[in-house]
Design goal:
This protein is α/β, with parallel strands linked by helices and about 475 residues long. The protein is built from 17 helices and 18 strands. Strand 10, helix 12 and strand 11 form a beta-alpha-beta unit. Helix 2 packs parallel to helix 3, helix 3 crosses helix 4 and helix 6 crosses helix 8. The structure holds adenosine monophosphate (AMP).
């Protein structure tokens, strides 16, 4: 934690006293970096996970701009889930104790719309909500954001993961351009950069951890003896390092298929990504990997082009690439967004010439290690964290992420924190749910309705090569 006291900031004495009573003695790193520009009225992009103190960073900012005598909504905080919105509202209320009569309201799905509309009609200074329900109120004219001065997107990466991009665009279109925009996100995939470029003005970056550079990837090379089966060598690496998500690069399509099939046969949640897949199979394969219901993606370089995957724990080269640049491109996919990545390569005697090229290119000596002990083959492969549910309704049926989230998390449903990525296609939607909640989620979907209608839903299993997944939805 940085040692800067809050008193180094231009905060009202009452606010400082309140922080003291909350026992916030010094600023957390994200607060130390982001609060000065936030209090100066600048747009700020902050890197902040739950636990970093990000809520107080933007909370103190929006409270400092608040005019309590004005009953218009002045700040809107958008969060991916109801649980987070409740948590954020609670923290803002604690911070607001120093100022009299501040009204903070939460606007999320799962609470009757009419009650919220009624509460909104009595005025509120700060709204904390989920995008779907806020959009509903805007559409029905029960919320007016014309007096807004501060917009906060909290856990922006998770909101985009959950498919809220369009909803956010609709909301942002309806708020004043002249405002302060604060965006907090744990990771910074391209979509975050692009939304920031569209909706923010000269944002200041407040990052705490250094992002990906060569130091954040550890590279190791494993020697496969000539008489040793390479498929077994790969399994040894996966069982030894147990990455939560890994891309295995193969030089040919045939290898990719064979490797994925072998891994599946040995209990790994693995799928192949190669040029022969039909578009729908490619979409499904990618979404199952990015939503964490498949742990190993076996890909060719061509098929992996343009792949934008965050928080990839490991890249494994089943065969080393012939070109050093391709090699670097492959391993650069791990260790993104400040998280440490690992790259493992299998090499055999016959491939030593490629290794020599790579050594020249990297200007470093590469030492091949022995494979992990064979006894590891007795271990069980890591299980995916999530399961994918496919629903037979999509954009055509006007399904939005909020509808699916609402159907899953309403009364008797699963917790918002157990819902992962939501992807909506023309006639189908996919939602990732925590594996332990998959059954309850399916039951809830079967009993409930989406847009007033019942739709079929099922767990997405199997793999595209097996035509089990080629049903209509
Ligand atoms: P957040 O990352 O916003 O969810 O905050 C994590 C927790 O840290 C919350 O319980 C806050 O009340 C607490 N907190 C935030 N800022 C500070 C601080 N400067 N010193 C001590 N605790 C803090």
């Amino acid at each position: 934690m940085s040692q800067k006291p809050f008193s180094s900031l231009k905060l009202h004495a009452d606010v400082l006293r309140n922080l003291e009573s909350l026992e916030y003695e010094v600023m957390t790193p994200i607060q130390a970096q982001s609060l000065p520009p936030i209090l100066a009225g600048q747009d700020v992009i902050g890197q902040g996970k739950t636990g970093s103190g990000k809520t107080a960073a933007f909370g103190l900012g929006l409270l400092s701009r608040l005019d309590v005598s004005n009953f218009e909504i002045q700040s809107l905080v958008l969060c991916p889930t109801r649980e987070l919105a409740d948590q954020v509202a609670k923290e803002i209320r604690r911070l607001a104790r120093a100022t009299k009569n501040v009204k903070v309201s939460t606007i999320c799905g799962g609470t009757p719309f009419r009650i919220q509309a009624d509460s909104l009609s009595h005025g509120a200074h700060i709204l904390v909500g989920t995008p779907g329900r806020v959009e509903d109120h805007l559409r029905k004219g029960t919320m007016n954001l014309q007096g807004l001065t501060t917009l906060v997107l909290d856990e922006a990466d998770r909101m985009l993961d959950m498919g809220f991009q369009e909803t956010l665009d609709i909301i942002i279109e309806q708020i004043p351009r002249k405002r302060q925009t604060l965006l907090f996100s744990a990771t910074f995939p391209d979509e975050i950069q692009s939304i920031a470029a569209r909706i923010m003005i000269d944002p200041v970056m407040a990052k705490v951890a250094s992002t990906h550079d060569s130091d954040t990837i550890s590279q190791r090379f494993f020697q496969v003896p000539d008489d040793f089966d390479r498929l077994t060598a790969l399994r040894l690496l996966l069982l030894k390092f147990r990455p939560e998500s890994a891309v295995v690069f193969c030089n040919t399509k045939r290898d990719a298929q064979e490797v994925a099939a072998d891994l599946r046969e040995h209990g790994f949640a693995a799928l192949a990504l190669h040029g022969d897949l039909e578009q729908r199979d490619r979409d499904q394969t990618l979404l199952r990997f990015t939503n964490k219901s498949v742990t190993v993606l076996v890909a060719t370089d061509v098929a992996a082009r343009g792949l934008d995957i965050d928080s990839l724990h490991a890249v494994i080269n089943y065969h080393i690439a012939s070109d050093a640049e391709v090699h670097l491109h492959r391993i650069g996919r791990t260790g993104r967004a400040g998280s440490k990545g690992s790259a493992y390569s299998l090499i055999s005697e016959k491939e030593n010439y490629k290794l020599a090229l790579l050594q020249d290119y990297l200007d470093q000596i590469i030492v091949g290690e022995s494979l992990p002990p064979i006894a590891l083959l007795k271990g069980t492969p890591p299980k995916p964290a999530m399961a994918t549910i496919v629903i037979s309704a999509g954009k055509k049926q006007k399904i939005r992420p909020g509808d699916i989230l609402g159907a899953l998390t309403g009364a008797g449903g699963i917790a918002g924190a157990q819902v992962g990525r939501i992807n909506i296609f023309i006639e189908r939607s996919y939602v990732a749910v925590h594996i332990s909640a998959a059954r309850s989620a399916l039951r809830k979907l079967a009993e409930g309705k989406l847009k007033g209608r019942s739709f079929r839903s099922r767990l997405l299993r199997g793999h595209p090569e097996k035509k089990r997944d080629s049903r209509k939805y």
